[in-house]
């Protein structure tokens, strides 16, 4: 196992700097109807990526706690603590990614004595984390039906399933899938309405505001593809592939390389050589997209090859960069980086 976390300071500078420079609107909310004595709904998310979506929909009427809320933590290897178990047990609503990605949350939900509904993002988006344009609108009404606390172990065997990540098929990193995020937002609005029916209009309005932000992101992504037809990139892991697919940017990395890295294994030497050839070819790939939260000997080799070839390196993370708490701004910064790299 060679996959290791990178130092926090090294992975936040680029995204944060870009985010601070943004002029686009983030996940704007309507004025909250809360009063000082209005109780907040307790929402627990497996990672702050989904915590940010929950906050966008729930606004000031929810108290969101994310089990993983630091860019210095690798969700793949996270081990839950007794405090995490208490947090999940006290929750009124739970959001997890599913698809085997956040197995620690599956275990926490399965062991919990609570009965909070569970929104599983992979299930809500169609079960496979598929293409951005698939399943749109089909599952919004099924948010967490039947997913009470004891139903938490449905995905444990799926962690390594479908690692053929070509254009996002079978890719569990669905928080980079803009349609999936909207489907989760709709599910959140539905469940929050069930828990707190007095503020139905507020939750629906916030979900609709988020929809507008996601549509802007989709338009921005597709514009990148139109501006750079035939753009080709390499990636160190399949994390950002849904977003690349939306942008019409082709990932040409050998799938054996990204699968091995994601699993914490060293890719075979022949596979590493094929990946390095992407930067030695003429012309080389247009950019390298790296997972800024992890690294290994193999990914270091690939990054060095990109830098030596003059290929721009784009950093995208699995969780929110330090100092960022808005999902739309985060994704907008990622698209800004991608555009800047391809413009070079």
UniProtKB/TrEMBL annotation:
The keyword Transport applies. This is Zinc/manganese transport system substrate-binding protein. Gene3D superfamilies: Nitrogenase molybdenum iron protein domain. GO terms for biological process: metal ion transport. Keywords: Metal-binding, Signal, Transport. SUPFAM superfamilies: Helical backbone' metal receptor. Residues 123-166 are annotated as: Disordered. It is found in: Cell envelope. The keyword Membrane does not apply. One of its GO terms (cellular component) is cell envelope. Transmembrane segments: none annotated. Residues 129-166 have a biased composition (Basic and acidic residues). Residues 1-24 form the signal peptide. PANTHER family: HIGH-AFFINITY ZINC UPTAKE SYSTEM PROTEIN ZNUA-RELATED, METAL-BINDING PROTEIN HI_0362-RELATED. It comes from the Bacteria. The lineage of its organism: Bacteria, Bacillati, Actinomycetota, Actinomycetes, Pseudonocardiales. GO terms for molecular function: metal ion binding.
